TrEMBL record:
<dbReference type="GO" id="GO:0006307">
    <property type="term" value="P:DNA alkylation repair"/>
</dbReference>
<dbReference type="InterPro" id="IPR035451">
    <property type="entry name" value="Ada-like_dom_sf"/>
</dbReference>
<keyword id="KW-0010">Activator</keyword>
<dbReference type="Pfam" id="PF02805">
    <property type="entry name" value="Ada_Zn_binding"/>
</dbReference>
<dbReference type="InterPro" id="IPR018060">
    <property type="entry name" value="HTH_AraC"/>
</dbReference>
<dbReference type="InterPro" id="IPR020449">
    <property type="entry name" value="Tscrpt_reg_AraC-type_HTH"/>
</dbReference>
<keyword id="KW-0234">DNA repair</keyword>
<keyword id="KW-0227">DNA damage</keyword>
<protein>
    <submittedName>
        <fullName>AraC family transcriptional regulator, regulatory protein of adaptative response / methylphosphotriester-DNA alkyltransferase methyltransferase</fullName>
    </submittedName>
</protein>
<dbReference type="GO" id="GO:0008168">
    <property type="term" value="F:methyltransferase activity"/>
</dbReference>
<keyword id="KW-0805">Transcription regulation</keyword>
<dbReference type="InterPro" id="IPR009057">
    <property type="entry name" value="Homeodomain-like_sf"/>
</dbReference>
<keyword id="KW-0479">Metal-binding</keyword>
<dbReference type="GO" id="GO:0003700">
    <property type="term" value="F:DNA-binding transcription factor activity"/>
</dbReference>
<keyword id="KW-0489">Methyltransferase</keyword>
<keyword id="KW-0808">Transferase</keyword>
<dbReference type="Pfam" id="PF12833">
    <property type="entry name" value="HTH_18"/>
</dbReference>
Amino acid sequence: MKDQINHTKEIMWQATVSCDSSYDGIFFYAVRTTGIFCRPSCKSKVPNCENVSFFPNAKDAKNAGYRPCKRCRPDLNIKTYDPLENLVKDTKRLIKNRYAQNLSLHKIASEVGVSRFHLNRIFKDKTGYTPRLYLEKIRVNEAKEILLTTNLNSTEVGYRIGYQSVSSFYNAFKRNTGLSPSQFRAYRNLNNDNQEID
């Protein structure tokens, strides 16, 4: 068992460099130059060895004056933490709460604290959608609801859900439903497509 062996600095350093999650909860490492401590599995940039200290628990690292990393959350009292899962949850929450705003991929990525390339790749790996397509689906679901419950015209609906042009709204709506907004409203009684995206 790893937690029963005497961990030398070299073993802990190798676990840190290789982001070995099997050592999570067994020790934590802190970086003098940043003032932050992490789990061994943290995907942050590998620090210089001479700037690293090791601690048996998060409390000792905090008592030594280090702050918990926001990426790997060593302060949470759980053995493993999947920052990518949380990144996806944060991105979904942001999109659902602010779909009516002018949300670019750059803006979403900067709000959740990663590069847009990293966010695009991770989000697609975890959900099957890019953030832009997910935003589009959320907006179209909202548009369907508005079309069925109000008398707003297509232009008003498009602007209300965040589109900057009528043609963008029309194209997105047709791509997702196979109908134009006015056709959807006219055939609403025949249309049973009430699927929501999670």
